[in-house]
Structures
1.
Amino acid sequence: MSPTNARPVADEATTASPLSAPTAAATPNGTRSAFTGSLLASLALALLSTVTAIGFCRVFAGWQFLGPMLTVVLGVHLCCALLRMLAAPAYIAIPATLAVLFVLLAWKYYPDTMTGPLPGSLTWSQLLSDLRLVREQFPSAVAPVSTLSGFAVLATAATALAAMLSDAFAFRAYGRAEAVVPTAVLFLFAAALGADRDRVAVTAAWLACALAAVAILRLTHARAEHSWIGSSRRAIITALPVAVVLAGCAAASGAWFGPRLPGAHEKGLIDTSQHNDVTQVLSPLVDIRSRLVDLSDTELFTVAASEPNYWRVTGLSLFDGSTWKLPDGDIAAVSGGFAGTPSGSHEVVQQIHIAGLAGSLLPAAYSPVRIEDGSVYWVRDTGTLVVPNDGLRRAANYTVVSAVLDIDANELNASTSLSPPGGSMTGLPVDFPLSAAQAATEVTAGATTVYGKALALQNWFRTQFTYDLTVQRGHSDDALVNFLRTRRGYCEQFSGAFAAMARSLGIPARVAVGFTSGDVQADGRYHVFGRNAHAWPEVWFDSVGWVAFEPTPGRGQPGNQQYTGVEPQQVSSDGSGLPTPVTAPTPTAPTGSDAATTTTTPAASTSVPAGTTPPPTPGENTSGAAGGTPPWIMLLGLGVMTAALWALALPHVLRRRRAGHADLSPVQQTTRSWQRATRALAVLGLAPLPQETPLEHAERVGRAEGLDPRMLHELADVATAAEYGDLADAQSAQRSVELADQVVQTVRDLIGSGDRIKSWFDPRLAVALLP
């Protein structure tokens, strides 16, 4: 065949061959292919967002957060998909999605603020209030936090925004790995700050979903981005199972292999928690605007004692209108006995074993008077025990002796409240709500003594208010007034409001923070959990001292029934939030110095009381498989991970290499397009013979089943003109690229699954079949 037989290049460039393959978007098959790829990719990203939401199980106590979060996040994914189907441009789609996100947040978290189906200004106000609370409490909050807090709202909003960004990166910027970056940032953030809960399982699931999402996006964007797997509907359906299996194998191998690597259980180079391997810190701030009600089932500590009590941590006497804070006070190092036992009291010995409680404040029955075989700091004004050095540590044991007052109602009724310790205990901010002071006056109008007024306040709260953990967040800037208006709340609101209103009557009052008694278990110890965190008010009586009252419905301090009239109660252990009676242990704890045998210094002991399972030490493998892993399994896991990484990296490298030839001349581009087509045909065993011209080669292979001879002839014509006559322009070069793409895609459709899988790993096949 002579070069002079070539047809004019210009004519070929301006008129498409009648049998040239149309683009994917222009045919029914192409439309179905695009829809299939978009649907699969959308589902993959939605699944990735779902697993990212599940990853917050390490941040929140319980699973109540997951339902509302998934409703909002999946709703955002659905909105993004619908807007893409409607071909909405980004400047319309993004604001519309943000509006849908706000409506979904209002529907799930602030339904009482909505006007019909739409949120209102009050919704926005409450959302901002919750976000401000999160900002204030974030520095001191330690996971797991309450699922009823503003943290849940923030986590949901952040995950939904990440879902929107992932969709935009994937379908508007045609990204692949970029699409998983927003959710990856959130997942890593939750992992860094969260507790060690389902760590391996959640991480493996997230990695599998992320790898699968990247692979499916590569399939979906193949034609538009010249991807390595292919863009037809058949290619997507064929390659999808392999991509999913590879992603699952890689994630499973990492989940199995990672914890067994040397040093996997050692302490990290950077300690993101900085809380001595403990999980919760009881905040000393009782904010009546707060929504951080900790209902977690995390065990914080256990107590062996002869009788139940409230395990008090500290007292808060500074009030700024919404927040009760610790006052400045003198602190003294003490050991042994540090306070006298007042008359009219009895001693209670407590053997305290720390499990998950962090911080420096040691809980004990009020008021501590002696610590056995150890030393602590003592703040007399607030009745606080402070553990020195690193604070509370897991598995540490303390024996504390407390003098518990035997209080008589008649004595309280005859007592005055004129000389509280530690300065003024009746101070209020100048803008204290007049309505709150008036309510206190009205409630106590029939009482003539301090005790009578305190009891009247207590009973008013207990009978006229409702204990409610689902109270709406951030009602207004004046939380006290709103609490009195709605008459719904929980211990922090009840105790703070009681103390503030008592002060408005001139009664010295403060707020105590600590825990209810906890659950007596088979070992005879009180097991105290996060759900037992509590706050209650204390009133000063000159002849007695600080006396606790209990305004919170469903709660009652053991031993105080005679003057409060409230039976011992606390939150139930079944997660219902309903009160349950407090029971005393069957065995009797040792008293006096007999208890010292199990006591350790605050910074030392690793001994564990009977019935308590010791926690694993750093570096200890608790899986039971340490040292017994067959080498071949380890090598197999490494092999699978390496193969998966190679399959993901190979097309990226080849595309970058091809991008380096973008500045070729039209003749060079046309020649290279013909070479691409012949490499692909060689996979079918139809490589050109040494003596063949392009047209002769096209004539021979055009007779093969499944190949379009006119498409091959058209490409051979422009290649012949370029190779033998240097005749090519930009249009003909672009046409040659399109024809070569069609040849490669046709070959990909004709080869079997085995060859297609080989092309993921064999660079020679990958080059030949790379569109």
Note: The chain has a mean pLDDT of 75.
2.
Amino acid sequence: MTKLLLLLTFLLTNTYLVFAQYTIKGNVKSEKGESLPYSNIILHPKDSKKIEGSAVSDDNGVYQITNIEKGEYWMEVVTLGYTSFSTDPFLLDTDKVLDFKLAEDVEVLEEVAVKATVNNIRETAGKLVVDLASSSLVNTNLQDVMKKIPGVIMMNGRLSYGGQQGIRILINGKSTNYMDTESLLQDFPAENIEKVELIQNPGAEFEAEGSGPIINVILKKNAKFGTHGNVKLNLGYDNQEEYGSSFAIGGLKNKINWQFNSGYRRSSWLDDLEIERTVKDDIYTQKTYSPYYPQYARMGGSLDYYLNKFHTVGLSSRLRHSDSERINENRTTISEAEQKNELLTNTRYDNNSTVFNVNPYYQFEKDKHSINFDLNYVSYANFNNSTLFEVGGEGIPFDDLNYEQDGTYQIVTAKGDYKWTKNDNLTFYAGSKYDVVETGSDLKTYVSENNEFIFDEAQSNLFTINEEIFALYSKIDAKYKDWDFSGGLRWEYSETKGVSQNTETQSKPRIISKLFPSMSIGRKLSKHFGTNLNYNYRISRPPYSSLNTFVYYYDPYTSEQGNPNIIPQYTNSLQFSLTYDEQPFFSVGYKETSDHLFEYISQDDETGQISRALINIDHYNNWNIRAFAPLSFHKKMDGYTGFIVNYNEYLDDQLTPILDLSKWSLTWYTSLEYELPWDIHSELSAYYVTGGLEGQIEHDWIADISFALSKSFAENKYKVYLGINDILNRTFNGTINSNQINGRLVNDWSRQNVYMSLTYNFGSDFKKKGRRRNSSQDIENRIKSNN
């Protein structure tokens, strides 16, 4: 019995020694004995720069690092305005008390500002990366960020890339298809963005959806010790006054990293359209004046908990609500041989939407292995009430219309990714993704009879879609001497069922099972030059809303209708690129799309009405030739310029008349930052397009110039930003000469808008007086590397 007790005691003692965890605590003071709050204390394993644990000293200079395993370590202490201190290696086999005294950094106290510049644009692994963390002029919203991406043009809420349409926006790799692009661009805050990636040919790790470029927005992960944040006030004028405010706060201490943000914005916008077309011997002139003033409110936050050096769990969430009421004024004039008839109508819109998103995740990283599990839930609800009613005119009869449309989306996505890094020359990836989408659109149409709206069952419809998409992928990145290779294969299986419930219930099931390969081969040609060739195969599924059989009238002679018979399109993409110091220099791309999703405009000569619907056409071909050059020939100047030559071709010999449209276009773009006297930062952005082809619409030249100024005060505690957009005041002028339509259109929107923001930054970064430098930059960079 005694031997058994001794054995148990021995085992328990050794178990405790093996699994025991210890604490290091103490205080940080200056040589004068003053407590130093907000000092960063970092624990490293012996002979390593890995972070085993960290702490930030409190207001009394006291710190504590807990749950440390037995082992050999060394410590470093860094704080603003003082010389960093590093200990010798030591054995930790019991709790320790370590106090530190730091000397003032004379170099910092007598510091002369030295500015370092980095290449904030680089091309790697088939994608263009634009780093925004160091830019002082990204201060407004996602729309402002788009100006930083070479070749991306934003016009009236629509994005294009040198004549290519169909750009998809991802946020941290997650789809935003359920959101209106214009609202997303205007309302998403720029201060939350770390960098953006322009991906011409996405690899297997991305879903195969889409035919155009992908813009992946990478959000910042808090990398600053202590608590910090900002308050921002926005003012502007865009057809009418605009205003808003936002608040953000975050903190990093021990094992918890958290952030919270909220904001409100009242916007102003104008979107006018004039269409003039010939119908037999008559001329139809349609003018729409459409001002609106949407309001947006948002809040969001995230919490990361570092269980230990290998395991991290986190949760992020966002809530966004928009509300918009507006009245469109429509004037339709029909000019006949001997008379003019005129109809005046108004369309009243009452639209509000709510988006809720929650995203829990788990991350494991150890040595050469990385595992991520991600669950994402999105709930989207939209309500729209519009009334089209006559307010004047003569000679044209019209019955008033009223539409009520409720739209809902429920999206659940589960995703898992594994990464194994054998060495610097070989990395393997694998993963899986499962999406469940439930969406519904309830359209109710009412027709006026005897000054009363009567429900029109024939023009009403409840349309629901249930879709499941399951995907598996694998990918390999390899390097050998001056060569690098990336190849992947993605399999996607989707089952989509749409149900239309009007006079008869119809079901339109669709099952797709396909492999989507992707490949990239690169070679370093010399010290500065490199080359890359990549290929991928992708799918574009029809938008959910386009599958509905509805007919929706924008004005008495303009409508849109759904098409339940459209099928997905498939695109083969090939691109060759040259780089100089990892910056894009020259590239040629070709895309060939079958069953292309095409917005088809048709005209009924008997009624004079035009209608738009999404259809499939046989072929769409695109050539894209790009040249890029940096503009950094002066120490105070940084920027770039470039040209894009684009060719669009649309072909379908089954349509009547045959569709055969093509056009070349040239785009020039530039973005230039320059440091003015008194440390004022300025930015000039501009583009010019010779003309182009968007479906059936051939447009004239378009151009834009935007300018911004930024100035910080009190060591970045306060910041003022002033910008003006669309200085040239150029409208969109297009013509349609196809499908028996002969017409022109002019689209006019808000331009020459002025914007100003005032920002106040607070927190641990600003609690030390005197001149300062970021002495914890290395630590912050290690956290940022996980973004």
Note: Residues 1-19, 107-119, 766-787 have pLDDT under 50 and may be disordered.
3.
Amino acid sequence: MISSFNSNHINSKALNCIPWNTPNISSPPPNLFSSTKRRRLQQIRKKKARDQATGGDMVSTLISSTAVDQTVQLTALVSVRKSLKLSIQDMMLHWFGNHDHFTHHKEKEKSLVLQLVSTETEAESMKPKLSNEAILDWSKDLNLNLINLINLILGAEKSSYEVKFEVDPKFGMPGAITVSNKYEKELYLDSINIEGVVHIACNSWIQPDKDSSEKRIFFSTKAYLPDETPAGLKELREMELRQLRGDGTGLRLPSDRIYDYDTYNDIGNPDEGIEYVRSTLGGNYTHPHPRRCRTGRPPTSTDDNMESPENEYKRIYVPRDEEFEEAKQGALDVGNLKGILRHIIPTLRTIASRDSNVFKGYADINCLYGTDKSLPKILNKVQEFLKFDPPKLIAGLTSCCLPDEEFGRQAIAGINPMSIQRLTVFPPVSKLDPSTYGPQESALKEEHIIGHLNGMSIQQALEENKLFILDCHDIFLPYLDQINALDDRRAYGTRTIFLPPTNSDSPSKQKQVLTPPVDATTNWLWQIGKAHVSSNDACAHQLIHHWLRTHACMEPFIIAAHRQLSVMHPIYKLLKPHMRYTLKINALARQFLINAGGIIESNFTAGKYCMEMSCAAYRDWWRFDLEGLPADLLRRGMAVPDSTQVHGIRLVIEDYPYATDGLHIWSAIETLVRTYVNYYYPDATAVNFDTELQTWYNESINLGHADLRHASWWPKLSTPDDLTSILATIIWLTSAQHAALNNGQYPYGGYVPTRSPHMRRLLPEEHDPEYTTFMQDPQKYFLSSFPSLLEATKYMAVIDIISAHSPDEEYIGDRKDLSTWSADTVIIEAFYRFSMEMKEDRKRD
């Protein structure tokens, strides 16, 4: 189609949200570098350490000024957060006389046991210097517990307790703390502050000793590269990483915190029947895929190579600290409840009337939405739970058909602005094997579009960057026979041609072409054609741009970061907020979304072939080196190199809000990351000498992306610039890119006729038996091509939930806790500038 581009800007706030048989990975040997380079590197780091000296030295001074034969007492404030429900229950049990719930005749048996670890070692044993073991038993302080209970009821998140440690005068500076939980239940350790100077950000669930006998280790917020680690902390640094890696065996328990890799061998369930058999994703050429977090569940009864899926009522394993916090889980529970309630009325209608599961008219669609705001308050509340909120798009529509201008606008400013490309060759040419899929040339001919080019020739339009394309042909064509054999699924391999303002529209199916309508009949054919294009684009958006690029392909980098980068590592600190919840969301996706018969298969065009299409895109199209925004725009022809421009590229469409806003954010991310990287890595030697960093990146590729590990396009990691590019790309994908793809799903896709996830009917042709039905009532035929009423409401409920903002969400440019950078003023200042840039971007919206 040739459609008009007249777009508004994407909401900037949405952009700002935010197995195996693989080779061993080796790290660069220390003797790779000359002694001169090593000395230079050490001198730079010593100077930086002096520059970073903070109030922590005050603690050392306090200790060292004490007489040699005396011990020094250090006071720490411990902040703890437990589940609100459990906290109130436990405290009430204690006050009403159930003392055994907390206390015991042995002091340590029901308490937290904490021990400080010095940055220094004992001269003789070379073991870290330790404080005494301090006992935290809040059950004994009834007054403090009363205050904390009141705070919990009033909504306070944390409870704080004072603990005193005794240390030797030569103890040095505290650098870490070990913690043992002697209580019966897990608790959340928020932070520990020593003398108001040394801060330890814990942010972790501590399991009872009965479930995990290993002491937990927490380090101060000061960042250390591996070879800068103080002597007293080296062993603990390595020990913690070993704990997180595990040994690759056994069933993972909900209380575990082990990160490991596995293939996607758990999305099928052959024990339920042949219709639930699905191929393993990853570990083979046919269905290559990034790896997931290993759970260790037993195999299915009928296929030893398939892992048994988790019961839908049981929590699928992710490391304990990857679970949703209570605020987010609560919001999801409310969303699920609304989804169930909003499904009740359509279900009752379907039961009452056999024909009521099909949309009969515009009114049938509109009644799903709570558009009447004049109702009394109590009825508005009822309406909120029984009806859907009107999507953003619905306000401007006067019918169930999407106007051509809006259809074109959404290609560059809707929920999927990442599929459109500049057309460089006409007719479009397929890259598929012609011996299997037929001629590579498109059925589109010059006569189909020449009348819509405003006097230009085809060649002139191409040279002036006036033609653009949504090309789903090669994605869908290999699967069309299988898709069209499914019940209630009909699809084409579509190509859609767009022309910027003042002109009309035209898509094509192989061997069939639609051009702008000339009468009522061709108008309805035109609307059905546009609906098929939107449906294909919805499928490509969800399976490739959303799931594959921002979820599945990021999981290996996150797993490797936890396995190979210490929490003390500056790169871990930079990446941490951008890794939040991804593993949990991906695990839930395997359990409910991409599994056999799950939400994706049930709703989208490709049905049970959805994940096979995603694998094909991963094999044939995905490249990490082209995932950064400028590279992606150049790849799609939406920009051309231009050294005179701020970003080094020039957009071929000025009114392309995703790219315009996105380049501002990309540039700000890149600037922040470059400042951060250059602060810790002054030259290539520093990058190559960082064994944790090199192992993280190598493992991400060789284990996490094992099926593509031999690809020549993987970026090298040898210089600060290399590292800046890699990190900026990861941060971009997990924040701004994901927000652009996710948060608009319901506002732009919650009105099914304008963006149907699948189609049930093909275009009627004159020789088809259905053509008579179409001619008798074109609108009825058009509406019957969409998902059923029940399918539509299920789909709407899901995208409403997954695209909603979470109450505990952090927007890019915001940090709830800057304490992790407390010693680095250069980094704090860089982040402040970045934060201001993000706020300015939101103001421009």
Note: The chain has a mean pLDDT of 82.
